[in-house]
Design brief:
By secondary structure, this protein is mainly alpha-helical. 37% of the residues lie in helices and 6% in strands. The chain has a domain of 61 residues: Choline/Carnitine o-acyltransferase (Fumarase C, Chain B, domain 1, Orthogonal Bundle), CATH 1.10.275. It is built from six helices and four strands, in the order ααααααββββ. The longest helix has 23 residues. Keywords: Acyltransferase, Transferase.
Length: 213
Amino acid sequence: MPILEKETARDRDSQVLPKVPVPPLKQTLDTYLKCVQYLVKEEQFKKTKAIVEKFGAPGGVGEVLQKKLLERRDKTTNWVYDYWLEEMYLNNRLALPVNSSPVMVFPKQTFRDHKDALRFAARLIRGVLEYKGLIDERALPVEFARGQLAGTPLCMEQYYRLFTSYRYPGIKTDTLKVQTNAASSAPEHIIVACKNQVRTPASGETFHTQSQF
């Protein structure tokens, strides 16, 4: 496959990407004020600016928190990851499809008969499993940034959570469950849902494993 001729994430396992930087405190506060000034009236903006200046004063709360962020950056691979995951995704109470989770809609298909539809589904599943094989082998081509940072290699770790993670629902916040050990040598389940009905094996019936497809 041509895709495997490109440099892969496996080839870069020994290379460490630069850590996500922590912007200087003044830069963060200036950016915040620039955004706020278009959202509030002038009098309210003056009050907000005074609060921000106090927050960012030498020896103030801002410097203390900035120091903690710098310490967090030094101790973690990505200091912003947990904040981003929780606030942008797990705490989000909106419907998952479109708002935060990707979905795919296929063009309408015309099948000759029931078996033709099953063959289509089988080919789709096989393609997904082949892609998962690339993920398991860390053989996906490394992606690179565009624009001002063009050519900079990007972290590929998000791909390796595909097919191995589950979002456990909660009332106020969800929990991300990720399989981090090789508990199973192959994926065990594919969920088939149709008209709000989930396919389950009939009495005495067994599902095929990945190697049997």
